[in-house]
Structure formats: structure tokens, C-alpha cells
Design a protein that fits this description.
281 residues, alpha/beta, seven-stranded mixed β-sheet, three-stranded parallel β-sheet, 24% helix, elongated
């Protein structure tokens, strides 16, 4: 089934919460865990789910009319690559999950569209639509979905009608296609520990970084079965050493150090340190 699947990573959404700090305003390029970008996690989800064809589409955030534009990007990609299914993931948030069980469930149900939903805490929902899972559970839909390529022309025609996307995207999908709400949190024997994060504010972004510094963070970056690859920096490995001048030993405790970092006699505690930083005594 993987041969007929295209991964489509959608960027161009809301601005990065770090834009005010002089860092790239594109949320998909927001640095995460020192040496990754948010975009890298969407690429990891597709690759580790066995999806070998991946395309990127930039769709500007135009409010309620953005979803029809995403469908139009799906249609362009389907025309070019001719897949059976498209797995559409947002590049402006992190979803770490194996999507193969969802694809299998859609195929068995004969559905045309699958919403990849999950239970979120009230503070994480951030006005995301609430959808109902097959067992009646209320879930949140963060925008990731799977669509059958042959259903795209009909969906596009439906969303051309006035009022179909103005806060009614889910209702419109339910009326115009065979829809399946897939609960990503359902037990599975495959894939990584489920993780979802949207850095909607500087506070939520900071909290997610600090969680990475704990002994058992919610996001597992060290799972050998679920590698996360990023752009190769060419920088040397991080190094923690003593300061020859004063004799202080360098320390890094409950911290992440990106490539090229040198802790020379200084102390780094509960911090995420970006590339090529030098901390001295």
C-alpha cells in the first residue's frame, strides 16, 4: 500500500512564536530541541510510516479559506504524482505518530477522508475543531488528514460553494464524503510514543523545550526505530571540557546541546543550547 501513498507537508501557516526575537518568521522553520526544525518532524512521520514519496506545499494562512486552498494543493500534487492516497500533515506543528494503522482503517472502512484526531488537554486545543471518534469520544482535530485522490475533485467542487469553509470545514466534509475520524491515541503495537505539540505562543514553546530537558520527556528523540533527520550542519560534535585558565570543569545537567556547542568551564543546567554556542566559566 505504501507505493500508492504521497505525503504532502503543508507550510505557510501562522507565524512562528519566535518571530519577535529575530528568528525566522516561518513557523515550519522554527528551531526545536536545539538542532531540528518543526518541519523535520513531519518529514520523520512520513518517512518512518513507510511513505517514500513526499512533496511540500506552501499555503498562506488566509483564515477560513485556507482549507480549500490546501485541497487545491492536494489536487495539484495528485495530478503530478498520481497516488491513491495523500497523507497531509502540517509543517507548523509536531505530530509524531505512525499513520499506517490509520491508512489501513480507512481502506477497510471504504472511507474517502480520514481526520487524524487525538485527545488534547483544554490548554492545547487552541480553538481546534472537536470531532467525535467511532466510540463516541470527543477528540481534537489539528488539521492533519488522509484523503483518497479520486475524492479530491468532488471535495473541491463542494468547497467552492459559499459558506462551506467558514468554520464549517468538518461539517462540510461529513456531508460531501465518506468520513472517518481516526483516534491516533488508540493502542497500537507499532510506531513511536504519540506526541503532538503546536507552539502557538512563546510560553507553550518554552514549556515544550523545558520538558525535553527532563529525564523522561513526552517526546522521545532517542528512539532508534523512529529517527528524526535534519539538515546536516557540518558542525563538530558538542563538547564539555574544563577551562585551562581557571581549572573549572564544564557541566551540562538536564540539558540538550546542539552540534558545535562548547561548554568550557561553564555550567549549563536545564537548558536547550543552539548550534555553535560557547559557554565559558
Amino acid at each position: 500500500m505504501a507505493e500508492g501513498i504521497l505525503g504532502l507537508i503543508v507550510t505557510g501557516g501562522e507565524a512562528s512564536p519566535l518571530a519577535g526575537l529575530g528568528i525566522s518568521g516561518a513557523r515550519a522553520l522554527t528551531p526545536f530541541a536545539g538542532q531540528y526544525r518543526l518541519l523535520d518532524f513531519a518529514l520523520a512521520t512520513t518517512a518512518n510510516s513507510g511513505i517514500r514519496q513526499v512533496s511540500l506545499a506552501s499555503v498562506p494562512d488566509t483564515g477560513a479559506s485556507r482549507f480549500p486552498r490546501i485541497l487545491a494543493a492536494c489536487q495539484r500534487a495528485a495530478t503530478m504524482f498520481e497516488p491513491e492516497w495523500l497523507v497531509v500533515l502540517g509543517g507548523d506543528h509536531i505530530l509524531q505518530a505512525d499513520v499506517r494503522p490509520a491508512l489501513m482503517a480507512l481502506d477497510i472502512a471504504g472511507a474517502d477522508v480520514g481526520l487524524l484526531a487525538l485527545p488534547l488537554r483544554p490548554d492545547e486545543r487552541n480553538a481546534h475543531p472537536t470531532v467525535t471518534g467511532p466510540d463516541g469520544t470527543d477528540l481534537s482535530w489539528g488539521g492533519d488528514f488522509v484523503v483518497r485522490a479520486t475524492a479530491l475533485p468532488g471535495l473541491l467542487r463542494t468547497f467552492e460553494r459559499p459558506g462551506t469553509s467558514n468554520g464549517h470545514t468538518v461539517a462540510t466534509l461529513q456531508r460531501s464524503a465518506t468520513l472517518l475520524v481516526y483516534d491516533l491515541a488508540r493502542p497500537s503495537d507499532t510506531g513511536p510514543r504519540l506526541y503532538w505539540h503546536e507552539p502557538a505562543t512563546l510560553e507553550t514553546y518554552y514549556a515544550s523545550q523545558m520538558d525535553l530537558c527532563t529525564p523522561e520527556p513526552a517526546l522521545d528523540l532517542y528512539d532508534p526505530a523512529w529517527p528524526i533527520r535534519s539538515v546536516t550542519s557540518g558542525l563538530p560534535p558538542a563538547k564539555v571540557t574544563s577551562d585551562a585558565a581557571c581549572g573549572h570543569m564544564g557541566q551540562a545537567v538536564n540539558s540538550l546541546l546542539a552540534d558545535g556547542c562548547v561548554i568550557r568551564g561553564g555550567a549549563v543546567i536545564r537548558s536547550v543550547v543552539g548550534p555553535s554556542c560557547v559557554v565559558e566559566a
